[in-house]
Write a structure and sequence with these properties.
single chain; 302 residues; mainly beta; 4-stranded antiparallel beta sheet; 24 strands; globular
Length: 302
């Protein structure tokens, strides 16, 4: 049950759920699948692999000596930038956080706070969103062109503070990189990367997260949750069951539509397959070990 035992076999499926790879392509967590390949990380190492499993690029975010004692000064998750053909990750110590590549610092140093473990570049790779995690709770954007940090305040990827433990992926970006979508105390917010233009789309009665814009930018999908006490000696963190998968249009008169009802299972990730379909996970929160996990596809325009 420990973090080091978490299975992370990378397997390809078609849209009907049929396995396309005869064996796992890699032992790692996926951050993205870009034109150059599949971006994978695990145990402070990263790699870019082909759809056939061939390694295209690999490296480490931390030298071995940095892992000797807690807390490690660099984070495990890494992202890939095709514009410089390089990986990037967060390196942080008390009072000093920076985006790093194998060649050195990519960003200016942030001396105000911990940035968090999660990061994802915008589709045009002009900006990098760095956000909530074990150490940092707010959403920051780094502008690679202007070389400046932009603070967007507290944000919620998922109401479970342990969301990052399972190393799921999430992207708030609109396809053209002009806006991002996320939840904060005011509800679902759509913002320009510089934070100067923001609008509140909807306020939910339940805790919500995993806001993801559709590829055409006309809708945003998200999940709502409720908590219940955890039993069985597995710690004091509550279990965040999924109460619904929703979509809301960005027209003024649009109202949220529930696509999927409540379940006792856990949902960690939500993505658009295209402009009409969503894919999400459900992980059993009961006694089976290992827990049963499923991927689901739902029609978003029905």
């Amino acid at each position: 049950m420990g973090r080091s035992n978490l299975v992370s076999d990378l397997i390809l499926l078609d849209r009907e759920g049929h396995t396309l790879s005869s064996k796992p392509l890699a032992d790692g967590f996926i951050t993205n699948w870009v034109k150059a390949g599949i971006v994978v990380f695990r145990d402070w190492s990263y790699s870019l692999i082909s759809a056939e499993g061939s390694p295209l690029q690999k490296g480490r975010v931390c030298p071995e000596r940095s892992m000797a004692g807690p807390p490690p000064t660099c984070t495990e998750r890494a992202a890939y930038l095709s514009t410089i053909n390089s990986f990037v990750w967060v390196f942080q110590s008390f009072g000093d956080s920076v985006l790093m590549t194998p060649s050195g610092d990519l960003s200016s140093h942030n001396h105000e706070k911990f940035l968090g473990e999660w990061l994802v570049p915008s589709p045009d790779e002009r900006h990098i969103a760095v956000g909530p995690g074990r150490l940092g709770r707010s959403l920051a954007i780094y502008d690679l062109r202007e070389k400046t940090w932009i603070e967007l305040g507290n944000a919620t990827i998922h109401p479970d503070p342990g969301w990052n433990w399972m190393e799921p992926s999430w992207s708030p970006w609109f396809t053209d990189g002009s806006q991002i979508a996320f939840f904060n105390g005011d509800g679902l917010v759509v913002s320009s990367p510089d934070g100067k233009q923001q609008s509140n789309v909807v306020h939910t009665k339940e805790p919500a997260g995993l806001a993801v814009p559709s590829p055409d930018g006309r809708m945003i999908a998200y999940a709502t949750f409720t908590s219940r006490p955890r039993t069985g000696g597995a710690g004091n963190q509550p279990i965040w069951s999924c109460t619904g998968i929703w979509v809301v249009g960005l027209q003024e008169s649009s109202q949220p539509r529930r696509l999927v009802g409540a379940t006792s299972d856990l949902t960690y990730d939500l993505r658009w397959l295209d402009n009409e379909h969503l894919v999400f996970d459900r992980v059993d929160s009961g006694a089976p070990i290992p827990p049963k996990a499923r991927l689901w596809v739902v029609d978003a325009v029905r």
